[in-house]
Fold this sequence. Notes:
Elements: H1 2-13, E1 18-22, E2 41-42, E3 45-46, H2 47-50, H3 53-58, H4 60-76, H5 81-91, E4 97-100, H6 106-110, E5 115-117, E6 120-127, E7 133-135, E8 154-158, H7 167-179, E9 182-186, H8 198-204, E10 208-213, E11 225-228, H9 231-243
Parallel strand pairs: 1-4, 1-9, 4-5, 9-10, 10-11
Antiparallel strand pairs: 2-3, 6-7, 6-8
Helix pairs in contact: 1-9, 5-9, 7-8
The structure holds nicotinamide-adenine-dinucleotide and zinc ion.
The site of nicotinamide-adenine-dinucleotide has 27 residues, from β10.
Amino acid sequence: MEEQLRTVANILKGSRIVVALTGAGISAESGIPTFRGKDGLWKKYRAEDLATPFAFQRNPKLVWEWYVWRMNIISKAKPNPAHVVLAEMEKEGILKAVITQNVDGLHFKAGSKNVIELHGNIWRIRCVDCNWKTVLNSPPIKIPPICERCGGLMRPDVVWFYESLPQDALNKAFKLAAQSDLMLVIGTSGVVQPAASLPLITKNHGGILVEINVADTPLTLVCHYSLRGKAGEILPRIYKYLKRKNNGNI
Ligand code: NAD
Ligand code: ZN
């Protein structure tokens, strides 16, 4: 493992454009449950059955209860060493951007600036009728919240299953993926499209893929390097080698 970390650090040093693609796993060590895996259930519901436009239509209050539960967790969460290392790498000009599927805003909290939020942000809400948007700083008291402009229902401005991604964010992400000579694929199960196809774009353009995940994923087979372990532990170890002038090769 140590040898692999050192090799990855060396490749990182020699890369021109590096991006990170992050998923729920990078925030797991901050205490935010992922969708898949043992913590993926809320009450008796699966995230896949709540994060849909149909669920909201059928029972907006239930969906909002789930979001209030998640907002409460997220408001207490702090960036972990994985978020911090990515922010440091950006500051030092090593990392160009973070493309994230997360809605928790922890990359910004850690100090990252160039963050592309593919699935929106949990604190932004919008009216289903007139599209008026506003940003919350704590979970709403009364649910579902009502639009101040037209009295319509407000919903979280996040991308649900069966919905398309914000075009602007998606365009930027595809462009970055094509340009990158290295993509760090961190804590994503690699099954949610179109985010899961971004690493393939990088690879098809000749870029290197480095996966950091506690478990195998469908992307493991296409990644050049797969580092098994927690993002909050692996990234600081890579960073340590990055900072060494001779990379420990004396
Ligand atoms: P996912 O829940 O499908 O998968 C999480 C992945 O992270 C798994 O592959 C798991 O093995 C890995 N993982 C768990 N702990 C890890 C750790 N400490 N270090 C490294 N890897 C770890 O998540 P996904 O692929 O992001 O897709 C699910 C969707 O859920 C996304 O669209 C996202 O918007 C949403 N989501 C977001 C948050 C958040 O904002 N924090 C939380 C849950 C779900
Ligand atoms: Zn409205």
